[in-house]
Amino acid sequence: MKLIIGLGNPGKQYANTRHNAGFMVLDEIQKAFSFPEFQMNQKFDTQISEGSKNGEKMILAKPQSFMNLSGEAVKALVDFYKIPLENIAVIHDDLDINLSEYKISADSSAAGHNGVQSIIDSLGTQQFKRIRVGIEGAEKKKERVVPGDVFVLQPFSAEELVTVKNLAGKIAFELKF
Prior knowledge:
By secondary structure, the chain is of the alpha/beta class. The chain is built from six helices and seven strands. The longest helix has 17 residues, at 158-174.
């Protein structure tokens, strides 16, 4: 069994914000894999879509506990389904990566991302895959006048939103465990 987690914040006020890039990409992956619509699972405080890909069961999960508490929901899912760490991938926004780009890494620190740190703290390890979706990049970061924690809660422009959603196809194709 595989678990792919998209990080974001619940609620319409956060729907198209940069911090919700993980939710957005996971929504597009759900469509690309032809998985059912996400359904709220109260037990895990998470929206879940389950299906099979390449003959293996896969759970797509969007924790609804707000970004900084994502680890609680992830730990509950991992414990309940007994998912090995090597079968977990977390999709989240990254200020240091250019918009329209992403990076896949494993066993890396949270690098200041509170949602990822919550997962590391809850699981007691950082040995899982991370798919870091670019929302800004180093050059733009130098020009930004608002702090990062304010910037991530700002909405994408319509053009940027299309760019982020288009990344999902590339990520879904490259997503390998």
